[in-house]
């Protein structure tokens, strides 16, 4: 019985990492393994496979802390319950790693935003994707124009930045001048990163 092609691709990719990528970075990996990470930036990005924060920002291992989810959403802060996955990663980055900046990075042709624009959260309300993208209802609705998708992608970034300020530890760090928040948008087709 032969292995599926994805398994062969993974084995080949790992072999290439060990032969080409790891050797020139061996010292970096050893240091990261021994002393831990000290990233200065938290990036909250979509889990879309076309949007790789480390590649886009030209960062090496250990330089950015990344939280990825559908449509790069930061849900509102909830003291009890809510999305503990995103909240715990954000809290860890701010209170333990002491990152100095958080970037929320949206992108072109986001499938999660497209699902929201198409009303998926209304037609299929009982699944995880629908419950998650429903958060975008809190985004400031864009003016009607000929690119509702892109307008909602930008609106989602702005909403997430607003929601971050509802996290007490984020607001405290921002108020003390220890943390900056910024929004960004990646155009996949053109390979361009714009800041909001």
Structural class: alpha/beta
In which order are the strands of the major sheet placed? Answer: 2-1-3-4-5
What general form does the structure show?
Answer: globular
Our estimate of the beta-strand percent is 15-25%
SSE succession: HEHEHEHHHHHEE
User: Distance N terminus to C terminus?
Assistant: 52 Å
Gyration radius, rounded: 19 Å
Low-pLDDT segments, ≥5 res: none
Mean pLDDT: 93
The percent of residues in helical segments reads: 40-55%
DSSP summary, beta strand count: 5
Largest sheet: 5 strands, mixed
**Total count of helical runs of at least 4 residues:** 8
Structural description of this entry:
The protein is an alpha/beta fold and 196 residues long. Helix content is 46%, strand content 16%. It is built from eight helices and five strands, in the order αβαβαβαααααββ. It has a five-stranded mixed sheet with strand order 2-1-3-4-5. The longest helix has 31 residues, at 5-35. It is globular, with a radius of gyration of 19 Å. The mean pLDDT is 93.
Write out key terms for the chains shown.
8 helices; 5 strands; alpha/beta; 5-stranded mixed sheet; 196 residues; 46% helix
Any chance you could write out the topology, listing elements then pairs?
Elements: H1 5-35, E1 41-46, H2 53-57, E2 64-69, H3 84-96, E3 101-107, H4 111-117, H5 120-123, H6 128-133, H7 148-164, H8 168-175, E4 180-187, E5 192-195
Parallel strand pairs: 1-2, 1-3, 3-4
Antiparallel strand pairs: 4-5
